[in-house]
Amino acid sequence: MNIRGVVPPMTTLLDENRRIDFGANQKLIDFLIDSGVNGILILGTCGEFFAFTEQERREFVTFAVKAVNHRVPLLVGTGHTDEREAARFTKFVGEAGADGALVVSPYYVALDDNALYHYYYTVSHASDTPVLFYNFPDRTGISLNTPLVKRILKDCPTIVGVKDTINDYGHTRTFLTDIRPDYPGFITFTGWDEYFLLNLLNGGNGIIGAYSNFTPSLYAKLYQAYQTGDMDLAAECQKKIGILMGLSSVSAQSIAVVKYAVSLVLGVCDMPAAPFEPLSSAQKEQVRTILTQAGIFPAE
Protein backbone atom coordinates (compact mmCIF):
# COMPACT_ATOMS: atom_id res chain seq x y z
CA MET A 1 0.00 0.00 0.00
CA ASN A 2 1.35 3.40 -1.01
CA ILE A 3 -0.42 6.32 0.62
CA ARG A 4 0.80 9.85 1.26
CA GLY A 5 -0.57 13.33 1.90
CA VAL A 6 -3.87 14.18 3.55
CA VAL A 7 -6.02 11.39 4.97
CA PRO A 8 -8.96 12.77 6.98
CA PRO A 9 -10.08 10.56 9.88
CA MET A 10 -13.67 11.01 8.82
CA THR A 11 -16.25 11.73 11.47
CA THR A 12 -19.31 9.48 11.29
CA LEU A 13 -22.35 11.69 10.78
CA LEU A 14 -25.50 10.79 12.69
CA ASP A 15 -29.07 12.00 12.59
CA GLU A 16 -30.86 13.58 15.55
CA ASN A 17 -31.76 10.12 16.85
CA ARG A 18 -28.05 9.12 16.84
CA ARG A 19 -28.45 6.73 13.93
CA ILE A 20 -25.88 6.67 11.14
CA ASP A 21 -27.00 9.06 8.40
CA PHE A 22 -25.73 7.42 5.22
CA GLY A 23 -26.83 10.30 3.00
CA ALA A 24 -24.91 12.83 5.08
CA ASN A 25 -21.86 10.58 5.13
CA GLN A 26 -21.98 10.25 1.35
CA LYS A 27 -22.03 14.04 1.19
CA LEU A 28 -18.99 14.27 3.44
CA ILE A 29 -17.07 11.63 1.50
CA ASP A 30 -17.71 13.46 -1.79
CA PHE A 31 -16.75 16.79 -0.19
CA LEU A 32 -13.45 15.40 1.07
CA ILE A 33 -12.51 13.74 -2.20
CA ASP A 34 -13.56 16.73 -4.31
CA SER A 35 -11.39 18.92 -2.07
CA GLY A 36 -8.28 16.96 -3.03
CA VAL A 37 -7.56 14.63 -0.11
CA ASN A 38 -5.32 11.63 -0.72
CA GLY A 39 -7.24 9.03 1.27
CA ILE A 40 -9.98 8.59 3.87
CA LEU A 41 -9.98 6.81 7.22
CA ILE A 42 -13.30 5.70 8.69
CA LEU A 43 -14.08 4.36 12.15
CA GLY A 44 -11.07 5.89 13.80
CA THR A 45 -11.28 7.91 17.00
CA CYS A 46 -13.00 10.79 15.23
CA GLY A 47 -15.25 8.23 13.58
CA GLU A 48 -16.47 7.09 17.03
CA PHE A 49 -15.70 3.42 16.37
CA PHE A 50 -16.25 2.73 20.06
CA ALA A 51 -19.91 3.76 19.86
CA PHE A 52 -21.13 1.21 17.31
CA THR A 53 -21.89 -2.47 17.33
CA GLU A 54 -19.84 -4.77 15.13
CA GLN A 55 -22.82 -5.11 12.80
CA GLU A 56 -23.16 -1.32 12.49
CA ARG A 57 -19.45 -1.04 11.75
CA ARG A 58 -19.68 -3.76 9.11
CA GLU A 59 -22.60 -1.99 7.45
CA PHE A 60 -20.71 1.30 7.48
CA VAL A 61 -17.63 -0.28 5.92
CA THR A 62 -19.72 -1.82 3.15
CA PHE A 63 -21.32 1.57 2.53
CA ALA A 64 -18.01 3.46 2.57
CA VAL A 65 -16.29 1.09 0.14
CA LYS A 66 -19.09 1.72 -2.34
CA ALA A 67 -19.25 5.47 -1.63
CA VAL A 68 -15.50 6.01 -2.05
CA ASN A 69 -15.50 3.76 -5.12
CA HIS A 70 -11.70 3.54 -5.42
CA ARG A 71 -11.33 7.29 -5.91
CA VAL A 72 -8.83 7.39 -3.03
CA PRO A 73 -7.46 4.70 -0.70
CA LEU A 74 -9.82 3.78 2.15
CA LEU A 75 -8.52 2.85 5.59
CA VAL A 76 -10.68 1.46 8.40
CA GLY A 77 -10.08 1.52 12.14
CA THR A 78 -10.28 -2.07 13.38
CA GLY A 79 -8.63 -2.10 16.80
CA HIS A 80 -10.41 -3.47 19.86
CA THR A 81 -9.71 -4.58 23.41
CA ASP A 82 -10.62 -8.11 22.29
CA GLU A 83 -7.90 -9.24 19.89
CA ARG A 84 -10.22 -11.88 18.41
CA GLU A 85 -12.70 -9.19 17.39
CA ALA A 86 -9.91 -6.96 16.11
CA ALA A 87 -8.57 -9.84 14.00
CA ARG A 88 -12.01 -10.77 12.72
CA PHE A 89 -12.90 -7.20 11.77
CA THR A 90 -9.52 -6.59 10.12
CA LYS A 91 -10.10 -9.64 7.94
CA PHE A 92 -13.59 -8.42 7.11
CA VAL A 93 -12.55 -4.92 5.96
CA GLY A 94 -10.01 -6.35 3.56
CA GLU A 95 -12.54 -8.74 2.09
CA ALA A 96 -15.06 -5.88 1.84
CA GLY A 97 -12.71 -3.92 -0.39
CA ALA A 98 -10.97 -1.47 1.94
CA ASP A 99 -7.30 -0.78 1.25
CA GLY A 100 -5.99 -1.15 4.79
CA ALA A 101 -6.68 -1.23 8.51
CA LEU A 102 -5.61 1.12 11.30
CA VAL A 103 -5.22 -0.90 14.49
CA VAL A 104 -5.16 0.89 17.82
CA SER A 105 -3.50 -0.81 20.77
CA PRO A 106 -5.87 -2.31 23.36
CA TYR A 107 -7.00 0.28 25.88
CA TYR A 108 -8.12 0.34 29.52
CA VAL A 109 -5.75 -2.40 30.70
CA ALA A 110 -1.99 -1.94 31.04
CA LEU A 111 -0.06 -4.19 28.64
CA ASP A 112 3.64 -5.00 28.48
CA ASP A 113 5.61 -5.39 25.26
CA ASN A 114 5.00 -9.13 25.04
CA ALA A 115 1.24 -8.67 25.22
CA LEU A 116 1.35 -5.95 22.58
CA TYR A 117 3.48 -8.17 20.35
CA HIS A 118 0.98 -11.00 20.66
CA TYR A 119 -1.95 -8.66 19.91
CA TYR A 120 -0.46 -7.20 16.73
CA TYR A 121 0.84 -10.60 15.63
CA THR A 122 -2.62 -12.15 16.00
CA VAL A 123 -4.46 -9.30 14.26
CA SER A 124 -2.04 -8.96 11.35
CA HIS A 125 -1.85 -12.70 10.69
CA ALA A 126 -5.63 -13.04 10.52
CA SER A 127 -5.61 -11.85 6.90
CA ASP A 128 -3.45 -10.23 4.23
CA THR A 129 -5.02 -6.81 4.85
CA PRO A 130 -2.30 -4.12 5.12
CA VAL A 131 -2.16 -2.83 8.69
CA LEU A 132 -0.96 0.43 10.23
CA PHE A 133 -0.22 0.73 13.93
CA TYR A 134 -2.33 3.37 15.67
CA ASN A 135 -0.31 4.82 18.52
CA PHE A 136 -2.49 7.06 20.71
CA PRO A 137 -1.12 6.96 24.27
CA ASP A 138 -3.55 9.61 25.53
CA ARG A 139 -6.34 7.12 24.91
CA THR A 140 -4.63 3.75 25.42
CA GLY A 141 -2.27 4.59 28.28
CA ILE A 142 0.65 2.98 26.44
CA SER A 143 3.00 4.15 23.70
CA LEU A 144 4.63 1.95 21.09
CA ASN A 145 8.43 2.12 21.20
CA THR A 146 10.69 1.45 18.24
CA PRO A 147 12.41 -1.70 19.60
CA LEU A 148 8.96 -3.29 20.01
CA VAL A 149 7.87 -2.06 16.58
CA LYS A 150 10.97 -3.60 15.00
CA ARG A 151 10.27 -6.89 16.76
CA ILE A 152 6.69 -6.90 15.47
CA LEU A 153 7.64 -5.91 11.92
CA LYS A 154 10.15 -8.75 11.71
CA ASP A 155 7.37 -11.29 12.19
CA CYS A 156 4.39 -9.43 10.71
CA PRO A 157 4.95 -8.54 7.03
CA THR A 158 1.45 -7.14 6.50
CA ILE A 159 2.13 -4.27 8.94
CA VAL A 160 3.22 -1.36 6.76
CA GLY A 161 3.15 1.82 8.83
CA VAL A 162 1.93 3.91 11.74
CA LYS A 163 -0.33 6.78 12.68
CA ASP A 164 1.42 8.43 15.61
CA THR A 165 -1.01 10.62 17.57
CA ILE A 166 1.18 12.14 20.22
CA ASN A 167 2.01 15.76 21.03
CA ASP A 168 5.74 15.07 20.79
CA TYR A 169 7.11 15.11 17.28
CA GLY A 170 10.39 13.70 18.55
CA HIS A 171 8.54 10.43 19.11
CA THR A 172 7.15 10.41 15.57
CA ARG A 173 10.61 11.16 14.21
CA THR A 174 11.93 7.93 15.75
CA PHE A 175 9.81 5.95 13.32
CA LEU A 176 11.74 7.66 10.52
CA THR A 177 15.21 7.52 12.04
CA ASP A 178 15.00 4.08 13.68
CA ILE A 179 12.57 2.12 11.49
CA ARG A 180 13.08 3.46 7.97
CA PRO A 181 16.72 2.28 7.63
CA ASP A 182 15.54 -1.34 7.88
CA TYR A 183 12.05 -0.79 6.41
CA PRO A 184 12.40 2.01 3.80
CA GLY A 185 8.73 1.91 2.84
CA PHE A 186 7.42 2.22 6.40
CA ILE A 187 4.46 4.63 6.23
CA THR A 188 4.64 7.32 8.91
CA PHE A 189 1.68 9.62 9.49
CA THR A 190 1.36 12.13 12.28
CA GLY A 191 -2.04 12.33 13.92
CA TRP A 192 -1.32 15.77 15.35
CA ASP A 193 -2.44 18.49 12.92
CA GLU A 194 0.16 20.93 14.19
CA TYR A 195 2.95 18.66 12.92
CA PHE A 196 1.72 18.15 9.37
CA LEU A 197 4.38 20.22 7.59
CA LEU A 198 7.09 19.18 10.05
CA ASN A 199 6.37 15.53 9.32
CA LEU A 200 6.65 16.12 5.58
CA LEU A 201 9.94 17.98 6.02
CA ASN A 202 11.34 15.04 7.96
CA GLY A 203 10.35 12.55 5.27
CA GLY A 204 7.07 11.38 6.75
CA ASN A 205 4.02 10.50 4.69
CA GLY A 206 1.65 13.22 5.87
CA ILE A 207 -1.29 13.73 8.20
CA ILE A 208 -4.29 11.84 9.47
CA GLY A 209 -5.70 14.87 11.29
CA ALA A 210 -9.21 15.55 12.57
CA TYR A 211 -9.52 19.15 11.42
CA SER A 212 -9.15 18.12 7.78
CA ASN A 213 -12.78 16.96 8.09
CA PHE A 214 -14.09 20.48 7.69
CA THR A 215 -11.29 22.27 5.82
CA PRO A 216 -9.79 19.58 3.57
CA SER A 217 -8.80 22.02 0.83
CA LEU A 218 -6.52 23.89 3.26
CA TYR A 219 -4.69 20.65 4.04
CA ALA A 220 -4.61 19.66 0.36
CA LYS A 221 -3.21 23.09 -0.52
CA LEU A 222 -0.41 22.66 2.03
CA TYR A 223 0.50 19.25 0.65
CA GLN A 224 0.47 20.47 -2.94
CA ALA A 225 2.60 23.48 -1.98
CA TYR A 226 5.11 21.19 -0.30
CA GLN A 227 5.27 18.94 -3.36
CA THR A 228 5.93 21.90 -5.68
CA GLY A 229 8.48 23.50 -3.37
CA ASP A 230 6.35 26.55 -2.53
CA MET A 231 7.42 26.66 1.10
CA ASP A 232 5.99 30.13 1.70
CA LEU A 233 2.51 28.90 0.82
CA ALA A 234 3.03 25.69 2.81
CA ALA A 235 4.05 27.74 5.85
CA GLU A 236 1.04 30.02 5.41
CA CYS A 237 -1.28 27.02 5.39
CA GLN A 238 0.41 25.51 8.43
CA LYS A 239 -0.02 28.81 10.27
CA LYS A 240 -3.78 28.62 9.68
CA ILE A 241 -3.78 25.04 10.96
CA GLY A 242 -1.96 26.32 14.01
CA ILE A 243 -4.82 28.73 14.65
CA LEU A 244 -7.25 25.84 14.38
CA MET A 245 -5.41 24.09 17.19
CA GLY A 246 -7.23 26.52 19.47
CA LEU A 247 -10.28 24.33 18.92
CA SER A 248 -8.74 21.80 21.30
CA SER A 249 -9.48 24.14 24.21
CA VAL A 250 -13.17 24.61 23.36
CA SER A 251 -14.34 21.30 24.84
CA ALA A 252 -12.99 18.01 26.11
CA GLN A 253 -15.46 16.48 23.64
CA SER A 254 -13.24 17.06 20.60
CA ILE A 255 -15.45 14.95 18.36
CA ALA A 256 -18.39 17.27 19.06
CA VAL A 257 -16.18 20.20 18.05
CA VAL A 258 -15.29 18.56 14.74
CA LYS A 259 -18.90 17.61 14.04
CA TYR A 260 -20.11 21.13 14.68
CA ALA A 261 -17.47 22.57 12.34
CA VAL A 262 -18.51 20.05 9.66
CA SER A 263 -22.14 21.06 10.17
CA LEU A 264 -21.23 24.68 9.47
CA VAL A 265 -19.61 23.71 6.18
CA LEU A 266 -22.03 21.07 4.92
CA GLY A 267 -25.31 21.87 6.69
CA VAL A 268 -25.50 18.43 8.31
CA CYS A 269 -26.50 17.36 11.82
CA ASP A 270 -23.80 17.79 14.46
CA MET A 271 -25.07 15.08 16.83
CA PRO A 272 -22.26 13.07 18.44
CA ALA A 273 -22.69 9.49 19.55
CA ALA A 274 -23.80 8.78 23.11
CA PRO A 275 -22.77 9.55 25.78
CA PHE A 276 -21.37 12.76 24.26
CA GLU A 277 -23.56 15.81 23.85
CA PRO A 278 -23.58 18.61 21.25
CA LEU A 279 -21.70 21.78 22.09
CA SER A 280 -23.33 24.55 24.09
CA SER A 281 -24.20 27.87 22.44
CA ALA A 282 -21.13 29.48 23.98
CA GLN A 283 -18.88 26.72 22.72
CA LYS A 284 -20.35 26.97 19.23
CA GLU A 285 -19.56 30.68 19.23
CA GLN A 286 -15.97 29.86 20.19
CA VAL A 287 -15.71 27.47 17.26
CA ARG A 288 -17.04 30.06 14.83
CA THR A 289 -14.60 32.65 16.17
CA ILE A 290 -11.59 30.36 15.69
CA LEU A 291 -12.70 29.37 12.19
CA THR A 292 -13.04 33.04 11.33
CA GLN A 293 -9.56 33.77 12.72
CA ALA A 294 -8.17 31.00 10.54
CA GLY A 295 -9.92 32.45 7.49
CA ILE A 296 -12.06 29.42 6.73
CA PHE A 297 -15.49 30.53 7.91
CA PRO A 298 -18.09 30.78 6.56
CA ALA A 299 -16.29 29.45 3.50
CA GLU A 300 -12.75 29.06 2.28
Describe the protein in words.
The protein has helices at residues 22-34, 54-68, 83-96, 113-124, 137-140, 146-155, 169-179, 196-201, 216-228, 231-244, 254-266, 281-293; strands spanning 5-6, 40-42, 74-77, 100-104, 131-135, 159-164, 187-190, 206-207. It has 300 residues and is of the alpha/beta class. It has an eight-stranded parallel sheet with strand order 1-8-7-6-5-4-3-2. It is globular and about 50 Å long. The relative contact order is 0.13. The mean pLDDT is 96.
CATH architecture: Alpha-Beta Barrel
CATH top level assignment: Alpha Beta
Q: Percent helix among the residues? A: 40-55%
**CATH 4th-level superfamily:** Aldolase class I
How many beta-strand elements? 8
Q: In this structure, how is the largest beta sheet organized?
A: 8 strands, parallel
What is the domain total for the residues? Answer: 1
Shape: globular
Nearest-integer average pLDDT: 96
Low-confidence stretches: none
Q: In what range is the share of β-strand residues?
A: 5-15%
Query: Could you give the distance between the termini?
Result: 32 Å
